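Our preliminary data section would be incomplete without showing what the modeling component actually yields. Below, a chain of 231 amino acids is followed by its predicted structure, encoded as tokens that our downstream tools consume directly.
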Amino acid sequence: MKAMIITPLIILLLTISSTISAQQAEKEYTYQVKIVNSKGKPQPNIYAYHENYYTKERKYFKSDKNGIMTITSTNISVDMYIDAEKSNGLHRKFFHFYREPKESIVYDTKKEIEKAMKGKVLTTIQEHPEYPGGIEECMKFLHKKAWEHPVIKKENSFHANRIGIPQSVIIQFIIDKKGNIKYPAVVRGLGSPIDQAAIDVLLTMPKWEPGKHKGKPVNYLFALPVRVLFI
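Predicted structure:
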């Protein structure tokens, strides 16, 4: 008799618990972020997505005529990626926010970048850019500068006992016809402020030997990892 009374009670409690859990899981948060170009002008028609960790399914969002993008997510910590192809850009761009975006996201289209650089940006060329001393020297330089950066030092202290955190920020940038670094953008990162610290480190690099195509210096889209966590 006792078993017959207890069993329905347990089933009822489990049902209530499951219902509450499902409601919590389905709760969506709404965020707004402003997309602007390098001059601060609102960017309409920029597409960004976040990806389900397990299914890899992408959910897309688009900025309106005022550059405002309204994002919905079941998480309060959100990783977003601007889709280059859909946004007429040169590169994907990563941005992260927790609870609420606090800053505008800067994104320039391919047309805007090429206009500013007075020439096309190529992704396939005959002679690739060269760092003084070669790529090994480049990675040594970035490693040294990253370790010296105060934000990166602080983050390493904070994450000292954590395992499985990505160790590098991947940055795409343009090496122009004179070997200068232009338009760096994080394509895979850890979030602010460490992503910006990685860009700061990248921008301390000396000039590269520019890439060439058909014997002439060109603007070239390149990418490098900047290691920011040494654990």
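Residues 2-26 form the longest helix (25 residues). DSSP finds five helices and 13 strands in the chain. Preliminary results of this kind motivate Aim 1 of the renewal.
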